[in-house]
Amino acid sequence: MAKANIRVKNIYYMLSYAFQTLRENGYRDVASEDFDNIHDLFAAILIRGVGSQVKRGLHRDYIQKQEPLAGLRGQINLAETIKQQTQPQGRLICSFDEFSPDSPHNQALKSVLLLLLHHGNVTSENKRAIRKLLLYFSDVSKVEPVSIRWDALKYHRNNASYRMLLGICRLTVKGLLLTTESGIHRLSAWLQGEEMHRLYEKFVLSYFLRHHPDYFPKAAYIDWDIEEEGHNPHLPVMKSDITLQSGDKRLIIDTKYYERGTMQHNSLYDSRTYISSNLYQIYTYVKNSDKAATGNVAGVLLYAKTDEVVTPDDDMIIGGNLISLRTLDLNQDWSVITSQLESLCSWLEITC
C-alpha cells in the first residue's frame, strides 16, 4: 500500500519555516545534526528550547487554588468549609490566587517531556538531558497528554517564547499517536493525520511568505460569485491554503497530505483517477475567484508525494482557467524541494 515518505531532516526544515524561532542561534546545532527518528528530533528541539526557558525562568501565572488554611487568605468558601467540617480543626476552606509556575503551559511541557522520556525512541544522551530539565518542573503538576486543551492555551508578550515549544509538544501528542505493542506503550514512528497536514500547509505558506513577500502570500477567503445582493449565510466558507498575487494574476494553491495514496482507484475498471473531491474544490475556488472570467486565476493541487508508481502531475485548461496538479517530494534533498516550490510561480509566468 502506498505511503508518504519524508526525511527526518526535512521535517526540521519544515518546522523552521512554520516556527521562525527555530532559525535563531540557539537551534543552529540542531540543523547540523543527523537524526535517526522524529522522536529524537523533537527531543533535541525541546531540550534546547526548554533549557533556554529555564534560564530565563519558567513563566508564572496566577492559579486559583482552594485549600484548608489556619489563617484567612483570599475568600472563605463557606459551603466547602461546612461540607468538609474543617472548622472544628481551626481551619477554613479558602479560595485564593497564587503566582505559580503550575500553569497549563508548563503542565503541557512537563507532560510531553515525560512522554518522550518514557515512550519515545530517544538517545541516552537526550534522555539524561530531559531528566535534568524535569528537575525544574517539581512544582508543576503532571497531566495526561490527551487531556491537554491545546486550543485553550493563550499567548501574550510574557509567554510568547512558549508558542514554538508547545507547537512541537502538540505535534508530539497529536501527531505521534501512542500505540501498544507486546504490552509496551510506544509513540508511533511518524507524524500522522491532521497534524502532518497542518504542518505541510503551514510550511508551504511560510515558504512563500519568507521568500516571495512581493506576491502577498496569504490564506485568503474566497467569496461566492452569487447574483443576489448581500451574503447568503447558508453557503459554506471558502478559504484557500495559499494565494499568490502578481498584478492581475492570481494563483490559488491547495495543499494535500495523504498518508495512503494521492489517486483514487476504480475497482470496476481497475483504473486510477485524480481524487474527484479535490478537483471539485480547487475548480470551485478558481471559478468563484475569477468572477470576470478573465482566465487570470489558476489553481494548483499540491500533493505530498507517496511511494505510488503514478502520482498527480498534470496541467489542464478547464473552463478557461489553468488547473494544475503537482506532487512535492519531501523525501528528496532540501534543494530539490525548494526548486519544486519555486517552479510553481512559472505556471503563471511569474519570474521567481
CATH topology of the largest domain: Trna Endonuclease, Chain: A, domain 1
Q: Can you count the helices?
A: 10
How many angstroms does the end-to-end distance come to? 37 Å
- Computed over alpha carbons, the radius of gyration is 25 Å
Strand arrangement, major sheet: 8-9-12-14-13
CATH class wording of the largest domain: Alpha Beta
Number of strands: 14
In sequence order, what are the helices and strands, one letter per element?
Answer: HHHEEHEHHHEEHEEEEEEHEEEH
CATH architectural group of the largest domain: 3-Layer(aba) Sandwich
Strand proportion: 15-25%
Give the helix/strand class: alpha+beta
The rough form would be described as globular
How would you sum up the major sheet?
A: 5 strands, mixed
Number of spatially distinct domains: 3
Low-confidence stretches: none
Mean pLDDT, all residues: 86
